[in-house]
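This entry is listed below:
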Amino acid sequence: MLPPPQTPRTDDPSQFQDLGARLRAVRRQKKLRLRDVAEKANCSMSMLSKIETDHATPSLRILHRIAAALDTSIAELFSAAEASGVTVYREGERPAVLVRRAEDRPAIRLERLAPALPGQIVDGNIHVLEPGAESGGDITHAGEEIGYVLEGVVEMMIGGRTYTFAAGDSFHFNSDLPHSYRNKAEGVTRILWVNTPTTF
């Protein structure tokens, strides 16, 4: 029998990778100006600067646009290849990034299931949504997605239609359909989410 799901802590910054520093490092490595990335991501320079210095946290939608402007993906930003070809993440040790975190906004935590490897064709995360958390607008990209709700209730908007999924429900859709989501449960919602290819 599986142990009951643990309620994740989202108040411990030591759990999460340094989002701003990683974005800044990738931008500098690619020799891109703050202005260039801000324009491509349809984000103000001041907001991007705050994100890079960890004075603001982007929504999932904005983070996806910034990653695309840097010609990378969220998966590649927060993963490192394992030399052995085998990666094991134990419970509580998965690399994670927190998005949409502000005093008045609930957070979404993305827990990596595997590192991003060269030539990889599939990407997986566990999306952990605090009560009231939402993705922050429509996201579109190449590929397709499969999800399975582990805990809670999520309302998803896919291609202009609204769906509600509870624990035990699954879904599949083409990623080029505009999609977004919000937690409709009183507690945490957890979703096992798989994308192919690794365009998220």
Observations:
- Residues 19-29 form the longest helix (11 residues).
- Residues 38 and 44 are 6 Å apart (CA to CA).
- The helical segments are 19-29, 34-40, 45-52, 60-69, 74-77.
- The domain at 15-76 is CATH 1.10.260.40 (434 Repressor (Amino-terminal Domain)).
